Amino acid sequence: MEFLPIFLNIKGRKCVVVGGGDIARRKTAVLTQAGGNVDVITGNDSDSPTEFEQLKSSTLIEQPFNAFSLKKCSTSSSSD
Questions:
Q1: Residue 3 within any structural domain of the chain
Q2: Total of domains in the chain
Q3: CA–CA distance, 52 with 38 (Å, rounded to integer)
Q4: Nearest 5°: phi and psi at 28?
Q5: N or C: which end of the chain has fewer CB within 10 A?
């Protein structure tokens, strides 16, 4: 099986995206459209931080990723 279809109700829940490029922006947009509160951890590697800041319900965190970032997280994704 190439794909695993998953349907999650993330409305109002914390989600974490690690990375700062185009893939991270797309994932962040999808998660915010689904109602998730998204923390985007870029590790000071964001191509365009203003694009993340424009996404409703997202917070840009420009520091290296650590396991504490996943505390109370409903879903996480790496873009690298």
A1: no
A2: 1
A3: 10
A4: -65, -40
A5: N
Residue 65, in any domain of the structure: yes
Residue 2 forms part of a structural domain: no
pTM reported for the whole predicted model: 0.77
Maximal C-alpha separation, the chain: 37
Chain mean pLDDT for the chain: 80
pLDDT tens, position by position, 9-31: 999 999 999 888 888 888 888 89
- The C-alpha atoms of residue 52 and residue 36 are separated, in whole angstroms, by 14
Q: Which CATH number belongs to the domain containing residue 63 in this structure?
A: 3.40.50.720
Domain limits at 30?
14-70
Rounded (10°) CA dihedral 69, 51, 34, 13: 20
